Amino acid sequence: MMQSPEAARSARALTAELVKAWTYFWPERKLQGGGERGRGERERGGEREGGERKGGEREGGERKGREREGGHNAGTKRRHEDEEASSNKKLVIDHSVKVARHYNSLQEVGLAARSRSRIFFMRNFNNWLKSILIGEVLEQVRGVGSQQVCVLDLGCGKGGDLLKWRRGGIHHLVCADIAAVSVDQCQSRYEDMKRKSYANEKLYSAQFISADCTKEVLSEKLDDPALMFDICSCQFVYHYSFESEQKADMMLRNACEHLKPGGFFIGTTPDAFELVKRLEASDSLSFGNEVFKVSFQSKGSYPLFGCQYHFSLEDVVDVPESLVYFPLFEHMAKRYNMRLVLKQRFSEFFEEKVKKEQNRSLMMKMMALEPFPCEDGGRQATDSTGEYCHAKEHCGTSGRPLGTLSRSEWEATSIYLVFVFQKMS
Ligand SMILES: C[S@@+](CC[C@H](N)C(=O)[O-])C[C@H]1O[C@@H](n2cnc3c(N)ncnc32)[C@H](O)[C@@H]1O
């Protein structure tokens, strides 16, 4: 993609500014608090990270004040630059093979086995959330007159979203993933769906590509190289690319290069601020509960790319992932003429969308929340103590049964955020 010299210069300047913001943001707090922060400070830190813009502004103000102090700050700045340089050296690590191997090895399980999973409701909840996101973006695309909607599912996995695209009545789907076994299973699922589709149903056409989307140019693999997409959907995938700048940029290029003007790049990814907040609040290098665990190699310094942690979730995920520093992601997307239109934590997205009757009824259909108390002598997803205290408390006040997730599942799903970028014309 060509860039004017002015755009390249201003992009470089902005990157430098973001690098500064990042390196000042985290290590500075450690230097001030000496590592052992009290509860009050931790909570204030939480507030600041939650309200990202406010935090950024305040941090900017504090930074100026410190810069005026001179000597000590010059030393601190140098230390940050040294840290930055040494962390950049780590970028040679390439986890693609490990990631592909892990996802390839996952067994496809039937509905019966899935419904026995400890995280059955959380997975349904995540699926509900994706369905709402996809449904709303499809509505917007149609609103501006696109009738034959083309979609790129970047990191499609085994085809968990094939049905959502069918419900959305799209025209064409391209599915791409690094895990070749998953792509094959995705294709079989699509073909099965096609065989079983109604006689008068016009199911979308589809292409399946097995490729490392952080290294290969997808457009070179398209059956129709001139194909332009209305939507690129990248669900629970983009963070794998933040291992290096080159990889993050290639995945962005694949997501955005073939989007029509006005088209959308949507996705879900862990919120780096939330992960770091939980890490800093932990006494060790990891945190989690009975369903998930996140382990870092160190804390206090967080490189822009290749800030790796290990993520495991029940029997579904067990891989190295990288923090996505969102302001940098947003900035990089500008190179592809993309404007951020929505960034919301899962909790915020849920609270907003659940207000709509039709979203609530989809939630029931998808069994996206667990009934509490459980019905007719059944059992909750877990017997562990404390997992439903919040629900008990709520029931006590309202006296009515409710839909919920166990505490551990809420803690796992609330790591994530939803993003929507739109291509400017
Ligand atoms: C958590 S799964 C999500 C699958 C699917 N998007 C969904 O929501 O059900 C992450 C997927 O990202 C894929 N992935 C990871 N790194 C990738 C890369 N470099 N290129 C393409 N796909 C990648 C994995 O193989 C895996 O299928």
UniProtKB/TrEMBL annotation:
<feature type="binding site">
    <location>
        <position position="130"/>
    </location>
    <ligand>
        <name>S-adenosyl-L-methionine</name>
    </ligand>
</feature>
<comment type="similarity">
    <text>Belongs to the class I-like SAM-binding methyltransferase superfamily. mRNA cap 0 methyltransferase family.</text>
</comment>
<keyword id="KW-0808">Transferase</keyword>
<feature type="compositionally biased region" description="Basic and acidic residues">
    <location>
        <begin position="30"/>
        <end position="71"/>
    </location>
</feature>
<feature type="site" description="mRNA cap binding">
    <location>
        <position position="416"/>
    </location>
</feature>
<keyword id="KW-0507">mRNA processing</keyword>
<dbReference type="GO" id="GO:0004482">
    <property type="term" value="F:mRNA 5'-cap (guanine-N7-)-methyltransferase activity"/>
</dbReference>
<keyword id="KW-0489">Methyltransferase</keyword>
<protein>
    <recommendedName>
        <fullName>mRNA cap guanine-N(7) methyltransferase</fullName>
        <ecNumber>2.1.1.56</ecNumber>
    </recommendedName>
</protein>
<dbReference type="GO" id="GO:0005634">
    <property type="term" value="C:nucleus"/>
</dbReference>
<dbReference type="Pfam" id="PF03291">
    <property type="entry name" value="mRNA_G-N7_MeTrfase"/>
</dbReference>
<feature type="site" description="mRNA cap binding">
    <location>
        <position position="158"/>
    </location>
</feature>
<feature type="binding site">
    <location>
        <position position="155"/>
    </location>
    <ligand>
        <name>S-adenosyl-L-methionine</name>
    </ligand>
</feature>
<feature type="binding site">
    <location>
        <position position="212"/>
    </location>
    <ligand>
        <name>S-adenosyl-L-methionine</name>
    </ligand>
</feature>
<keyword id="KW-0506">mRNA capping</keyword>
<feature type="site" description="mRNA cap binding">
    <location>
        <position position="321"/>
    </location>
</feature>
<feature type="site" description="mRNA cap binding">
    <location>
        <position position="239"/>
    </location>
</feature>
<feature type="site" description="mRNA cap binding">
    <location>
        <position position="164"/>
    </location>
</feature>
<dbReference type="InterPro" id="IPR039753">
    <property type="entry name" value="RG7MT1"/>
</dbReference>
<feature type="region of interest" description="Disordered">
    <location>
        <begin position="30"/>
        <end position="89"/>
    </location>
</feature>
<feature type="domain" description="MRNA cap 0 methyltransferase">
    <location>
        <begin position="117"/>
        <end position="424"/>
    </location>
</feature>
<feature type="site" description="mRNA cap binding">
    <location>
        <position position="189"/>
    </location>
</feature>
<keyword id="KW-0694">RNA-binding</keyword>
<feature type="binding site">
    <location>
        <position position="235"/>
    </location>
    <ligand>
        <name>S-adenosyl-L-methionine</name>
    </ligand>
</feature>
<comment type="function">
    <text>Catalytic subunit of the mRNA-capping methyltransferase RNMT:RAMAC complex that methylates the N7 position of the added guanosine to the 5'-cap structure of mRNAs. Binds RNA containing 5'-terminal GpppC.</text>
</comment>
<keyword id="KW-0539">Nucleus</keyword>
<feature type="binding site">
    <location>
        <position position="240"/>
    </location>
    <ligand>
        <name>S-adenosyl-L-methionine</name>
    </ligand>
</feature>
<keyword id="KW-0949">S-adenosyl-L-methionine</keyword>
<feature type="binding site">
    <location>
        <position position="177"/>
    </location>
    <ligand>
        <name>S-adenosyl-L-methionine</name>
    </ligand>
</feature>
<dbReference type="InterPro" id="IPR029063">
    <property type="entry name" value="SAM-dependent_MTases_sf"/>
</dbReference>
<dbReference type="InterPro" id="IPR004971">
    <property type="entry name" value="mRNA_G-N7_MeTrfase_dom"/>
</dbReference>
<dbReference type="InterPro" id="IPR016899">
    <property type="entry name" value="mRNA_G-N7_MeTrfase_euk"/>
</dbReference>
<feature type="binding site">
    <location>
        <begin position="126"/>
        <end position="127"/>
    </location>
    <ligand>
        <name>mRNA</name>
    </ligand>
</feature>
<dbReference type="GO" id="GO:0003723">
    <property type="term" value="F:RNA binding"/>
</dbReference>
